Amino acid sequence: MDDICTTPGGGLPRLLAIMARLRDPETGCPWDIEQDFASIAPYTIEEAYEVADAIERDAWDELEGELGDLLLQVVYHARMGQETGRFDFHTIADRVAQKMVDRHPHIWGEASREKSAEQQVADWEAAKAKERTGRTLDGVALGLPALLRAVKLQNRAARVGFDWHETVAVLDKLREEAAELVEAREDLTASEVTEEMGDLLFVMANLARHLGVDPEGALRGANAKFQRRFEAIEDALSAEGRTPAQSDLAEMDALWDAAKLRKKER
Question: Under which main EC class is this enzyme filed (predicted)?
Fold first, then answer.
């Protein structure tokens, strides 16, 4: 096994062998041996975000490495599944391969390929619905980012008719929730304020869905824009030998507006 582990160019078989070696109860790495599904799951989520981050930044020189890190997470879970007799990498790959074939009857079946991308999405969702059992909202992963999970829950409910028909109705609900939070904040407990804030964010996610906007992507973009503009404030102050703590809000607002103007002029 060590020969394949240390030989470049081995591809996926090499990676699988490395993981088996790391998890060997007698000769493996103590840290890797101690891990289980629950302890590795946060790393899996983190690596998926790092892939998304590299794509968001057009960091194509980093993407290959980030995808490798994400693949390692799948290999890790697959190895633990193999050790417990539940599944292994090959059964995982075969299962998702069969799913792709089943969900593309217009490629590997009798269905016509002459349909729009929108119709293909609708067919995909219909196929997923047939595979699900239980309640409408079952299976929406608890570990998803909260905004993304809100949209998925809303989409599921919308498929059975539980949805506003007009975007204006969502806007009305948004105003209502915002007003309730502002008007009642002095009389509410901390937990009640948190609940009202959650209601407001949930409606914001619904508004994004009605507008065809990915709220996670929109917020990532807003975060990046805020960081760029605040760093422009820091740079301007640093040129004068000062820090933001040595400035005030009025000055920093003016520098913020200047950063916005420079962006528009480019």
Answer: hydrolase
Residues contacting 7, CB < 8 A, separation 6+: 14
pLDDT tens for 65-92 read: 999 999 999 999 999 999 999 999 999 9
Q: Which CATH number fits domain 132-213: 1.10.287.1080, 3.30.360.10, 3.40.50.300, 3.40.50.720?
A: 1.10.287.1080
Per-residue model confidence as pLDDT tens digits over 222-256:
998 999 999 999 999 999 999 999 999 999 999 99
Residue 177, number of CB atoms within 10 A of its CB: 19
CATH superfamily of 2-87: MazG-like (1.10.287.1080)
Strands (E) across 107-253 are located at none
Eight-state DSSP code of residue 35: -
Quote the tokens at residue 229: 């503009």
CA distance 203 to 174: 6
- The pTM for the full model equals 0.65
